[in-house]
Amino acid sequence: MSVFSRLDRAFQNAPILPLTNCSRYVLMSDCHRGMGNSSDNFLKNQHLYFAALEHYYKQGFTYIELGDGDELWENRNMKNILDIHSNVFWLFKEFAREDRLYLLYGNHDIVKRKKRLQPLFSPLHFHEGIILSTGPLSGSMPHISLYLTHGHQASLLNSTLWPLSRFLVRYIWRPMENLGVLDPTSAAKNYHIKNNCEVRLNQWAEGNRRILITGHTHRPILPTEPARYYNTGSCVHPRCITCIEVQRLSMTLVKWSMNARSDSTLYVAREVISGPVSLLDSPTQSVL
User: Fold this and answer.
1) What superfamily does domain 3-281 belong to in CATH?
2) Angle at 174 between CA 168 and CA 177, to 5 degrees
3) Which residues contact 8 (CB under 8 A, 6 or more apart)?
């Protein structure tokens, strides 16, 4: 199956959520929540993430996680991840109660496609893709649809051959990473693989005349000029987390990091990296 076929399949039965001038969505990806040990890449940014999540909950945003939320290649037991990061899942439950929580699966948590997260949520479904859409053409309002998925479909090794990749990560690259050797097959750690993935994702978006938003490569992308491909970045950057906010029919790439006031007290700061970019100026799209 080709890259284009895998991406097409991701949206065949994807839920379609309303996109209006009043809509508020926050798109995050690649949290890689682990078990609180030295291999838990999320641990260093958990305070930034929780502060950001609280902000978006209070501001009425709907939270959409674009996959690799939990690190289930290195770890076998989801229950341990739930216990270690219980504050995150408690807030997830609050989002879910108000129907403001949507979770996609990526390659590192692809096992979720056949399972449900229990016992916090009942039931909670994980999707491969989600579409945000203004709906049918009406009046002067252009048709706008945002296609959301993780982005691992651009890599054969991380999609069709994911069991092999999981084996390599779990038994070879994870132990070697503790010695300072980076996984050469990872789109997040290998510059060449990262570029190739992004080229393929952009080709699909251009070829289908659609706006595509992914994670996977961990590199945030939101051009100031209208484009077809965007990336949320990740929650495991060395000193920050990044995400894309969608509100008032515009997209903004933001960074959450630690900052210091004049009296040297620390606080979690929200900083705009790029945008807002109006979706009304987006390239012509194919209709659903």
Assistant:
1) Metallo-dependent phosphatases (3.60.21.10)
2) 125
3) none
Alpha helices by DSSP H, 35-103:
46-58, 78-84, 86-97
Query: What pLDDT is stored for residue 167 in this prediction?
Result: 81
Per-residue model confidence as pLDDT tens digits over 210-251:
999 999 999 999 998 889 999 999 999 999 999 999 999 999
Q: What is the DSSP letter of 282?
A: S
What is the model's pLDDT at position 77? 83
187-214 pLDDT, tens digit per residue, is 556 667 888 999 999 999 999 999 999 9
Q: Tell me the DSSP string of 185-246.
A: T-TTT-HHHHHHHHHHHHHHHHHHT-EEEE-SS---B--SS--SEEE---S-SSSEEEEEEE
* Pair of tokens at residue 109: 């948590």
